[in-house]
Amino acid sequence: MIYHKPVLLKEVIGYLKPKENKEYIDVTAGGGGHTLELLKKKARVLAIDRDPEAIEYIKKNQYKFLSSGNLVLVKQNFANLAEIAKNWNFKKNNGILFDLGVSSWQLENETRGFSFDKSGPLDMRMDPELGICAKDIINNFNERRLYEVFKTYGQEKFSRTIARAICRARQVKTIETTAELSLIVKEVYQKRNIRSKLHPATKTFLALRIVVNSELLNLEKCLPQTVDLLKKGGRLVIVSFQSLEDVIVKRFFKQEKKMKVLTKKPIVPDILEILKNPRARSAKLRVAERI
Ligand SMILES: C[S@@+](CC[C@H](N)C(=O)[O-])C[C@H]1O[C@@H](n2cnc3c(N)ncnc32)[C@H](O)[C@@H]1O
């Protein structure tokens, strides 16, 4: 499995202040990087991920913590956080961590279909049991709906043209792979002679991933559930990687009267971290405390 470097690790742990026998929930366990730091401080951790491969990976690598009882691992969608926490008796926690988005493992593994520069099936499901994958959307949504997906969730300037090009291409044959989709989008950009620092398919792929996994909806459902799962002084620590997520987090922090915001401005990685881990470049960390 490809190693996922935890983002803003020092800052996240600085805010969570893990202590022996205190309880924490990591709702996006991924490769277990943040979870491991909490466990090293002898904290108790409920680690959740909807991806069974992430759960298996942590199970193998952090077995000693599982057997000591300090780590509880659950394959679930964090949208059901209150129920999961109740089932596992993590009712009053010192901290809850969200590290949103996908892990390096998911991105780099071509069989998962997340990446525009790795050829694989057009899948993009974090949880393979999900009913709908990216291929279903690309081949079945009508032009108008495709346009709306790219516009709303990818903020893609050429949403209309891309949606049209996809509909034209799929009349010839079903679009099956990330490489096929990536090429269709690239050609739209090339025809318009647009040069950008980002790969042309970046926003199209992001939009699809958000829709396949209902990422924004899950975040909106989960955030209000965190409040009563935190003890007084407990902290909600959220790392997001794209503006639509950050907007939801900011709005929640502003509206929730039982939480005090500790980060007026988001904390971002320093240049050294970005050089070591370019994926960290768009990370924003926001923290609020239960009052
Ligand atoms: C950026 S990675 C987390 C990396 C982790 N903090 C680490 O240091 O290794 C995000 C993880 O969140 C998981 N995830 C995203 N949305 C989820 C949801 N709604 N429920 C549970 N897990 C989710 C993904 O499957 C992925 O493994």
UniProtKB/TrEMBL annotation:
Q: Where does S-adenosyl-L-methionine bind?
A: G32, G33, H34, D49, F78, D99, Q106
Q: What is this protein called?
A: Ribosomal RNA small subunit methyltransferase H
Q: Where in the cell is it found?
A: Cytoplasm
The entry sums up its family as follows:
Belongs to the methyltransferase superfamily. RsmH family.
Single biological process term from Gene Ontology: rRNA base methylation
Does the keyword section mention rRNA processing? yes
Q: Which UniProt keywords apply?
A: Cytoplasm, Methyltransferase, rRNA processing, S-adenosyl-L-methionine, Transferase
**What does the UniProt function comment say about this protein?**
Specifically methylates the N4 position of cytidine in position 1402 (C1402) of 16S rRNA.
Report which superkingdom the organism of origin falls in.
Answer: Bacteria
Q: Which reaction does it catalyse?
A: cytidine(1402) in 16S rRNA + S-adenosyl-L-methionine = N(4)-methylcytidine(1402) in 16S rRNA + S-adenosyl-L-homocysteine + H(+)
Q: Name one GO molecular function term.
A: rRNA (cytosine-N4-)-methyltransferase activity
Q: What is its EC number?
A: 2.1.1.199
Among Pfam families, the record links this protein to: Methyltransf_5
The family database entries (SUPFAM superfamilies) matched by this protein are listed as: Putative methyltransferase TM0872, insert domain, S-adenosyl-L-methionine-dependent methyltransferases
Please give the chief subcellular localization of this protein. cytoplasm
- Stored PANTHER family: 12S RRNA N4-METHYLCYTIDINE METHYLTRANSFERASE (PTHR11265:SF0), S-ADENOSYL-METHYLTRANSFERASE MRAW (PTHR11265)
Q: Name one GO cellular component term.
A: cytoplasm
Task: Return the InterPro entries for the record.
Answer: RsmH, SAM-dep_MeTrfase_MraW_recog, SAM-dependent_MTases_sf
